[in-house]
């Protein structure tokens, strides 16, 4: 019976990249930041709540804002109070990193 023999010299080895050996879960985590910045494509209106919510909630969860929206965590102050370890009077105000998304 004829058998097919593959000559090892004719098959070029594929170069390995860091992502070629990665598990699917790791790839999903690496690609997650790309998915976080898709614009919301629908304007909230009276007749499209379910569709709007399906776009908004994943974004809120991805940015870990649920606790702030639903009252489980108090919102941080918008500005640093200079009397409690903040910048000296006359220095420009700094935005608290908790507000940077």
Please give a structural write-up.
This protein is mainly α and 101 residues long. The protein has a domain at 24-86 and 94-99. It is built from 3 helices and no strands. The longest helix has 14 residues, at 49-62. The N and C termini lie far apart (66 Å).
N-to-C span: 66 Å
Can you count the beta strands? Answer: 0
Number of helices: 3
Helical amount: 25-40%
- Bulk shape: elongated
Summing up helix and strand content along with how strands pair, one would put the structural category as mainly alpha
The radius of gyration over CA amounts to 26 Å
The helix-strand sequence is HHH
- The overall average pLDDT, rounded, is 68
Strand content: under 5%
- Main β-sheet: number of strands, strand sense, barrel status? none
Low-confidence stretches: none
How do you describe this structure in short?
The chain has helices at residues 24-36, 49-62, 66-69. With 101 residues, the chain is mainly alpha-helical. It starts with 23 loop residues before the first helix and ends in a 32-residue tail after the last helix.
Give a topology summary.
Elements: H1 24-36, H2 49-62, H3 66-69
Protein name: Retrotransposon Copia-like N-terminal domain-containing protein
Can you give keywords for this protein?
single chain, 101 residues, mainly alpha, 31% helix, elongated
